[in-house]
């Protein structure tokens, strides 16, 4: 199976400072994450993905030391030159910080950074959402930084619970020339009928914006193994909501190794869309990622 993995990480926790892996454990959506508090490098990834023809990949920032966002860019560039992966990178940047302009301009001058990820402030439930809260997508400081993305040729990877996707739609409509990519399928962690109804409505609202795409990834549930039975319907609904041209499959490795092996996840994607035309499958597994993240598959970058 030919793939471009649209969302994965590498880290060397012996050489670099990643607070969430090095310091006191954070409240993590999969629960205990001690199993991934170890180095995870290109050789580990290739071993995990060995069943597949990986023709490209997208490295997503790893919550590296926030005082040194460009340090991760330099480290990833060295990995790319040595290992041939990743193809491109989504870097860390804090849109509401004083150094946003400096950091975004530096990222825009690289040859392999395609966008940034800044996790906006989020509420813990739909009823606690406060529009325009400091650090949220409606915050004026956040939007000032967001306005600098398009001039620097950068897209925006958005990781936020589904109950903030209305704010994402407002943001997308205000900045029509900036590509937004929703991470981890909008985080449908609440699989109750009410939770899925809320997730579905929020995804439909986001899909109204042509400049929003979605990565189908991060579908694990706390205390449960990853299965097609649990996740297949969400995969298919996401494709139906956004359309085949705006969805990408991704591993979220090594994080999702907490719930399944790499092969289980990608073969599960394959089973979920097995009845789709090959042209649609190609888009989902690699072609959309190549287009959205501007990866030249023939050259590998």
UniProtKB/TrEMBL annotation:
Residues 4-295 form the Amidohydrolase-related domain. Gene3D superfamilies: Metal-dependent hydrolases. SUPFAM superfamilies: Metallo-dependent hydrolases. One of its GO terms (molecular function) is hydrolase activity. Belongs to the metallo-dependent hydrolases superfamily. PANTHER family: AMIDOHYDROLASE, BLL3371 PROTEIN. This is Amidohydrolase-related domain-containing protein.
């Amino acid at each position: 199976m030919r793939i471009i993995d649209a969302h994965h990480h590498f880290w060397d926790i012996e050489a670099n400072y990643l607070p969430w892996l090095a310091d006191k454990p954070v409240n993590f959506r999969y629960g205990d994450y001690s199993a991934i508090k170890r180095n995870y490098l290109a050789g580990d990834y290739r071993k995990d993905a060995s069943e597949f023809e990986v023709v490209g990949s997208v490295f997503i920032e790893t919550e590296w030391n926030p005082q040194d966002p460009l340090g991760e860019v330099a480290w990833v560039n060295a990995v790319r030159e040595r290992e041939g992966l990743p193809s491109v990178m989504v870097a860390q940047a804090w849109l509401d910080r004083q150094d946003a302009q400096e950091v975004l301009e530096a990222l825009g001058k690289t040859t392999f950074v395609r966008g940034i990820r800044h996790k906006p402030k989020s509420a813990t439930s739909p009823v606690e959402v406060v529009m325009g809260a400091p650090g949220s997508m409606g915050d004026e400081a956040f939007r000032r930084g967001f306005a600098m993305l398009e001039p620097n040729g950068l897209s925006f990877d958005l990781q936020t619970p589904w109950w903030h996707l209305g704010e994402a739609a407002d943001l997308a409509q205000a900045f029509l020339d900036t590509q937004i990519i929703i991470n981890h399928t909008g985080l449908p962690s609440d699989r109750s009928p009410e939770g899925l109804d809320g997730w579905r409505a929020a995804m439909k609202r986001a899909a109204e914006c042509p400049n929003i795409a979605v990565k189908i990834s991060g579908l694990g549930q706390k205390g449960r193994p990853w299965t097609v039975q649990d996740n297949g319907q969400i995969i298919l609904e996401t494709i139906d909501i956004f359309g085949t041209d705006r969805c990408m499959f991704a591993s979220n490795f090594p994080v999702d190794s907490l719930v399944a092996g790499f092969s289980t996840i990608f073969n599960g994607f394959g089973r979920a869309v097995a009845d789709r035309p090959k042209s649609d499958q190609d888009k989902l597994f690699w072609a959309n990622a190549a287009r959205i993240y501007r990866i030249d598959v023939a050259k590998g970058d």
